[in-house]
Amino acid sequence: MATYPSGVYSPRTKENKEGVVYEAAEKTTLFAEDVVKDDDEIVAVETELGTNPKGAKADVKTRLDDVDTAIGTKISKTIAGELDAMDAKGSLVDNDNFLIEDSANSDSKKKTIWSTIKSVLKTYFDTLYLALAGGTLTGNIIFGENTELILDPILSADGKYCGITEAGDSSEALVFGDLCFYDVSADQWTKVDANVSAGYNKKLGMCVLAAAGEEDPTKMLLYGKIRADAAFPNLTVGAAVYMAETAGDVVVVQPTTADVCIRIIGFANTVNELFFNPSNDYIIHV
Prior knowledge:
Layout: H1 32-49, H2 60-88, E1 97-102, E2 105-113, H3 114-128, E3 160-169, E4 179-183, E5 188-191, E6 204-209, E7 217-227, E8 240-243, E9 250-251, E10 261-262, E11 264-268, E12 273-276, E13 283-284
Antiparallel strand pairs: 1-2, 3-7, 4-5, 4-6, 6-7, 7-12, 8-9, 8-11, 10-13, 11-12
């Protein structure tokens, strides 16, 4: 007699009568083997279910229905909670997790983090567009109405600059803030002065990359702002700044020496900061 669910069924041993041999093809005779197989199946099912398959419910069906409902509710609440959390997320941090669907298998997901996504996006956009950290522009930029190219409002310290530059080679040792001219014959930048000799009336630049000596690489500011506390005299705010009679220097008082060039190279924003915009015009003092 079965005792389930109080206990798992323990069937008694069954055997065929003496002389009876089991024949699988025989359909009208019940052999011990047939009964034993049924007993084994019952024991296997009861063992799998355990002795309390309905739990505290009225029956197994009710319990399974309740479990199904509970799982659905739990999943729904979890997903809703995750969505609420995403809505409330003010910003992303590097270790935030993302699930990405595998394009080859929509049932498969890949896990990644925000720092990896940022890195991939940066590489992608740097390849397509000019990188924020710098690069070579290969197309035209059109400024629309009311758009601006804005210079840094205040240069923070000695040795800072902002504007249009040009790279080249030097003809001599140069320091930051030296006023130079481009020597076409030598294809080099060299310090310039107001004396009527080579350079006073040529293309001017302000050194923003020091050079140790001849043929060293340098860089010249052609237009923009430069702060050179060590190289400049105290500038007069709002007033013109001139090419000096000493090579590489600038002065705040226009030269008065006879036969010397008077050429404005910009205007003072502060006592240390120069708006470098050299004039194309000059005069020779008489």
